[in-house]
Amino acid sequence: MKIASFCSGVGSPEVAANDLGWESVFMSEIAPRASAVLAHQFPGATNLGDMKEINGYEWRGAVDLIVAGTPCQGFSAAGKRRGLRDDRSSLALKFIEHLAAIRPRWFVWENVPNCRSTNNGRDFAAFLGCLGGRRISPPEKWGNAGIVDGYPGAYGLAWRVLDAQFFGVSQRRRRVFIVGHLGGWSSAAQALFEPHCGSGTAEPSAQIQSQLEAAFAEKVGAGDPRGEILSFSANDFGNDCHPVAPTLRCGGLRGSGVKPAVVTNDWIRTMTVRECERLQGLPDDWTLVPFRGKPMSDSRRRILVGNAIAVPVIKWIFERIELVEGDATAATNISAYGA
To answer: pTM of the full predicted structure?
Structure first.
C-alpha cells in the first residue's frame, strides 16, 4: 500500500505503515516542531507543507490510502465549538477536496468524539454527506458507530468511536475514525467493524506497564522505589487514581484542567515525555530531536505527543484494510451496527 497523510503531526500513520512494510508517498505538515520531527525520523521523505497550497491533481493515482487528523479545536469541548465554521477545523473540508482530486481507494479520518455534536450534529452530517455524495439528516443524537452507503462513484463509509486503552496502551483516548472506500460501504465496514468484538478491558497491558516503569527507572536510577508505577492520576495531581492514564492533551501540562500524573508508593509526579510517547505507542524518544540547533524542550514535546494519533489504533485499522485488500470477497456480519 502507498499512503499519504495530511496534518501529519509527528508521523503516527507513517510509524504504523512502516511496521507493515507500506510506502509513504508524501506528508503535509506546517507546524515547525512537528515538521522537524518528521524530517529527523523520516530523512528524505516529502513534506508538502500547507495542505491549502497543495494541488491534489498532481498526485492522482499515486496513493492508495490517505490519512488525516485535521485540527480539532473547532469541535473540542475546550474551545468555542464553532465546528466547521472554525478556520482550523474547516480544514476537514479541504481534505474532502483533496480526496476528490487524488481519488485514493481508501481514506482514514480521525478526530475528537465531539465532532459529532457541533451545530446540533449538522456538521458531522454535512461532512459524512460530502464524503459519501449524499444528503444526510442528523439524528437526535449520533451513536458510536454507523455506515453511509455512498452515491455511485463516491466513497462508501463506516465510522466508529475507538478507545486507545483497548489497543494495548494505558490511556483513555476516545476518537472518531471514519474509513472510506471507493468500492462501497461493505469494504469500509469490513475494515472497521468486527463480527464478534468483545467489550475489552480497561486494565493496562503488563507489557506497557513494565515499559513505563522502566522509563522512569532510567531517569531516577535503577532500584529507586519511585520508579514503580501504581496508578495514574488526573485533576491537578489529586487522588483520583486509575490503572489507565487520562487522555493526553495537545496542551501538555499548561493551563487548567486534567494534568496526567503517576502515583507511586510515596509521592505523585508528572509523567516523563518518554512515558507520554509510550502511552501513544510511539517509539522511545521519538520527539527528542534537534530544533533550531538545540534539543526540543520537554514542554513542546508533550504538546506534539498529545496531538498525535495513537499508533496502535491506526495500525489496527491499517491491518484490517490490508485483510480486506487481500480478500475482496471476505464476508463480515455487520448487521448489528447502525447509525
So the answer is: 0.83
